[in-house]
Write a structure and sequence with these properties.
It contains 8 helices and 7 strands. It is an alpha/beta fold and about 220 residues long. It has one domain: Vaccinia Virus protein VP39 (Rossmann fold). Strands 3-2-1-4-5-7-6 form a 7-stranded mixed β-sheet. Strand 1, helix 3 and strand 2 form a beta-alpha-beta unit. Helix 2 packs across helix 3, helix 3 runs parallel beside helix 4 and helix 6 crosses helix 7.
Length: about 220
């Protein structure tokens, strides 16, 4: 039997890289707050939500502040899980941050009412398996939202997005380089996403496009 596939593309986000990302992502807190409010508007008290690849956990923490939801989050990075748990403790909210692989989730079938994945899907080494796992852990009728970069995003859209992040000169340059030479190469086009979803059993899939990326709405 061959070795199991690595769960993520590239060198991964642990240690220094995870801490650097967490500091810079915190500057986009209005986006995490906005996403949390949008999702909360779709939930009922007591609903169970899973965030896949939460990174430092900003979205999950903000969502937990907004209502009586049971929030779980799964990340492959040990450093991110540690940071996210600390962020939840500091915010005095209850979020279950767990270490694990999006392509082999440690959850029973049909556990969650809603699933959220932001700016991470392109990094999964087994995209179809990850989608199949998302389908498996959602309850019948459960919904999901994937937000991510598009593989054919133009350079102008990338520069504009980085300019809105409020980064210092060096971090802004490093972020632009990461977009151009790493993230875009990992990201998928709409046609590729459609091919992936053809191999799943989601009842409906809607792909909303912007110059920089996609919002993909799923229903089981």
């Amino acid at each position: 039997m061959g070795a199991a596939a690595k769960a993520y593309k590239g060198i991964g986000m642990d240690g220094f890289l995870a801490r650097w990302y967490s500091r810079n992502a915190a500057k986009s807190m209005p986006d995490f707050i906005s996403d949390a409010r949008r999702v909360a508007a779709l939930l009922q008290p007591g609903d169970k939500l899973l965030e896949v690849a939460p990174g430092p956990g900003y979205f999950a923490v903000e969502l937990a502040k907004l209502g009586d939801y049971r929030v779980t989050a799964l990340d492959i990075s040990k450093t991110f899980v540690e940071i996210a748990r600390r962020n939840a403790k500091n915010a005095q909210v209850d979020v279950d941050f767990q270490l694990g692989n999006a392509s082999a989730m440690p959850f029973e079938t049909a556990q969650f009412d809603f699933l959220f994945c932001r700016a991470a899907f392109k990094n999964f080494s087994e995209p179809v398996q990850a989608l199949q796992e998302m389908h498996r852990v959602l309850k019948p009728g459960g919904r999901g939202l994937i937000i991510d970069l598009r593989g054919d995003a133009p350079l102008g859209a990338i520069n504009e997005a980085v300019g809105r992040m409020g980064l210092g000169v060096f971090s802004a340059w490093l972020t632009r380089m990461a977009f151009r030479f790493m993230l875009i190469k990992r990201a998928y086009t709409k046609a590729q996403f459609e091919e992936f979803f053809a191999q799943t059993q989601f009842r409906s899939v809607s792909i909303d496009e912007s110059p920089l990326g996609f919002e993909i709405w799923l229903e089981k």
